[in-house]
Amino acid sequence: MTSARMNTLANLRGQIERLEEGACGHAFGRVALGHVDADAALSGGLARGAMHEVFAEGGRQGAAAAGFVAGLARRVSARRPLLWVRQDFTATECGALSMSGLAELGCDPRQVVTVHAADAETALRVAADGFACDALGSVVLEVWGEVRALDLVASRKLTLAARSSGVTGLVLRLAATPSPSTAETRWIVRAARSPPDEAWRVWGAPMLDVELVRNRHGPTGQWLMEWKCDECLFREPATYSQPVAATSADRPYQARVVAPGRRAG
Questions:
Q1: Strands 82-87, 138-144: parallel, antiparallel or unpaired by DSSP?
Q2: Which residues, at least 6 apart from 198, have a Cβ–Cβ distance to it below 8 Å?
Q3: The pTM is what?
Q4: Phi-psi region of 166 (alpha: psi -120 to 50; beta: other; left: phi over 0)
Q5: Would you call 141 exposed, middle or buried from its count of C-beta atoms within 10 A (0-12, 13-18, 19+)?
Q6: Does domain 52-235 have CATH number 3.40.50.300?
Q7: Cα angle at 244 between 238 and 250, to 5 degrees?
Q8: pLDDT for 67-82, tens place per residue?
């Protein structure tokens, strides 16, 4: 049993080394995100036919991370279907995946296939089948917590499947700590303040604090990204000038208040 497992690991290592010595993740090209600095760090954009990881701090940042993943999937999938595999517990903690919300972000709900899995292990098996299906544009695997099954061996299998089929894999990890993997990139996403419009009457555009903490073929970095729902791409946020109170010039910030005196008599 041990010998068979060692042989399997050796074969996987050999296949990955041959793939890395060849195209190094560039065989299926790259898709620009639209954010100038991020695309420069990514050597032109996000690599297709590779696995990418997105982490969020617990449930409070889950919506922001899911929005970022939806944007990435929209960019890399083009007109091909998106398979989104969710562990049931993530819906309990973060809420259901809204098709109307995806539509507002610019995604076509008719191109989205969702699968609900009872546990992380089941979700991983379903996603692995999706990674190997070349009819898909991308696969999102969304799991909660420290998943033992999603170890380095499983990561290598997903990477091999993605590079063989050309499907882009996006692994969304909620309330988890980054661990060794074969991911092409690793991101940590947080919500950022959306600037209001000039009249302060409507919601601002989705704004994200995005940190690239792993990049196999380039530098890392941290940027504010604004998702443009109409153009379906990320941009540098515009600067909004807001009226603020003028700084006091004739008296200290905390002026002493003197109560009026009472007259005698």
A1: parallel
A2: none
A3: 0.79
A4: left
A5: buried
A6: yes
A7: 145
A8: 999 999 999 997 899 9
